[in-house]
Amino acid sequence: MSKIEKRIDEIMNRMNLDQKVGQIVQPERMFVTPEEVKQYHIGSVLSGGGSTPGENRLEDWVDMNDAYWAASMDEDENHIAIPLVYGVDAIHGNTNVKGSVVFPHNIGLGAANDPDLLEKIAQVTAKEIVATSVDWTFAPTIAVARNDHWGRTYESYSETPDLVSKYAPRFVKGLQGKFGDENVIACVKHWIGDGATLHGIDQGDTCITEEELRKIHMPPYKAAIDAGVQTVMVSLSSWNQEKLHGSKYLITEVLKKELGFEGFVVSDWDGIGYLNESFSEAVALSVNAGIDMFMVTEKWREFIELVKEHIASGRIAMERLDDAVRRILRVKLVSGLFERPRPSERKFSNDYSAFGSESHREVAREAVRKSLVLLKNDENILPLSKDARILVAGKNADNRGHQCGGFTIAWQGVRDNESIIGGTSIWEGIHDVAPNAELSIDGEIANPDKHDVAIVVIGETPYAEMLGDLRVPGLSKGMKVSRGSTSEDHTPEDPFPIMKEGPYGTHLYHHELHPEDIATIRSITSKGIPVVTVMVCGRPLVINDELDASKAFAVAWLPGSEGNGVADVIFGDYNFNGKLSFSWPRYDNDNWNLGDEKYNPLFPYGFGLRYL
Ligand code: GLC
């Protein structure tokens, strides 16, 4: 038996029922104190998107983690010292935290098609996470998104499993490394088929055969497990009407036994509650399905009592609880958590020298450059001259919040420059190198006597998860979205206000989702000024009108904080590199994917122009 398995046995032989049940619980930080972590023997705490301590500085994160960790390690006659593991959604940088580098979201990284760069991004992300003394990130998302209507398409690298399977192990290795001081625990998500729900409805139903599930959605998980990923998060979606959180077949039989996954499986945000009207029944179903750690954000005390009741009644076998605890202890031992000093004494805690550093920003800037995809370049209008008299317009030209997208500072992202400390907007990047450029967001000052060319930056505004869906009325299902958009929104009375707005829209036609964009383009071309359009978006959209009105058209996806990477390519310092990792639709109802019959997108998978 290995040293680790022996160590697990030693610890488990000392644990009583309360300590075992506490170890499998993960409350959200707004609903648990350090004192309760010790009292209830809690194994993990998380920050939901935008749930940030104090002033949201490194020291606030380290102080918070120090308090939770110290409580978990304060051994006495009732409590065994087992280090708490803290989890966050650092999915494109440690982007809950002010001043972090914000990398392009996964859809852009897919277009970059550069696995080495991906591993470098993961290593930098891990460094910016350990500066806050957090141990675990719920990343990478390895969804194979098959419907552009899905609000989480931008979290997917590609519509095909090949690229995702190439990327998954590299990102896992970049985060986990050899579990040194600069490494964190990775979490691949969301098991399984989250990107293939009917109509792209978030948390909806993936109605496909097992053969397709295995062929399209399983390969990235196999690659990640082979690379040693330590945790897997279960999807909130269903497979043929069965919620994944209750699927013993897919969690225990396939993921754990067939694929040999030996880390632990974590539920998604209150996902067990979807299994049954009765929370007690839901608890039994989800534990018996094979989930090991339970992200039960508020009702965790009730969860603990119900698990103990089910153990007493035999509804949950002690072996199942022991399996969950064993797996959690294994991950904590394998990742070195037991050996790590308290958060405030760790080597990189509060290390501002690397957090948001220029060298980290250079990696993100390279990723922006490599992710840009050129769809049109009539008369080779690009690259532009840096001396040209350029008008820069469009609602996304000078808005670092918009170019970062969701899961940035707040769950739903932010919509200004001020919230993103550091970095450059696309406009700022252009203006840094082109002294004759001027900004007019609506393009009003366009004047052919003063402007040779216009760059119009259009696209989407930030969203996350179900609020990014494009859902035809009647398909949408009511969703109590129990999470605020910023930490300022959280109040003691209502820490997670219900989000007011509904889904993003109902279809893929950009000229209807954002008519202001085609209006801006046309207002400028009507004065005889040619337009180069740059699109900031989290997914392919139907852009026939905008494309026709533009002389050149480039997709920047959600580039993150280093908007200057766009100027690097627009002015020719670097060539375009990006190739579409998602087929680009011709109409709203032709959400084709590579390999489909009658495949006939506007731009095919792998398309991308370059300078001659
Ligand atoms: C969310 C997401 C998941 C995220 C988790 C914690 O609902 O589905 O991707 O990791 O909650 O924020």
How would you explain this protein's 3D organization?
The protein is of the alpha/beta class and 612 residues long. It has 2 domains: 3-345, Alpha-Beta Barrel (TIM Barrel); 367-465 and 507-570, Glycoside hydrolase family 3 C-terminal domain (Rossmann fold, 3-Layer(aba) Sandwich), CATH 3.40.50.1700. The chain is built from 20 helices and 15 strands. It has helices spanning 3-14, 17-23, 34-39, 58-72, 106-112, 115-130, 161-176, 210-217, 219-226, 248-258, 279-289, 300-313, 318-334, 358-371, 400-404, 426-433, 510-513, 515-525, 544-548, 564-570; strands spanning 44-46, 85-88, 136-137, 187-191, 205-206, 231-234, 238-239, 242-243, 264-266, 373-377, 390-393, 438-439, 453-459, 531-536, 552-557. It has a 6-stranded mixed β-sheet with strand order 10-15-14-13-11-12, with helices on both faces. Helix 5 (106-112) crosses helix 14 and helix 14 (358-371) packs across helix 20. The longest helix has 17 residues, at 318-334. It is globular, with a radius of gyration of 24 Å. 59% of the residues are buried. Residues 478-500 have low confidence and may be disordered. The structure holds alpha-D-glucopyranose (GLC). Alpha-D-glucopyranose binds next to loops.
Topology:
Elements: H1 3-14, H2 17-23, H3 34-39, E1 44-46, H4 58-72, E2 85-88, H5 106-112, H6 115-130, E3 136-137, H7 161-176, E4 187-191, E5 205-206, H8 210-217, H9 219-226, E6 231-234, E7 238-239, E8 242-243, H10 248-258, E9 264-266, H11 279-289, H12 300-313, H13 318-334, H14 358-371, E10 373-377, E11 390-393, H15 400-404, H16 426-433, E12 438-439, E13 453-459, H17 510-513, H18 515-525, E14 531-536, H19 544-548, E15 552-557, H20 564-570
Bound molecules: alpha-D-glucopyranose.
Alpha-D-glucopyranose binds next to loops.
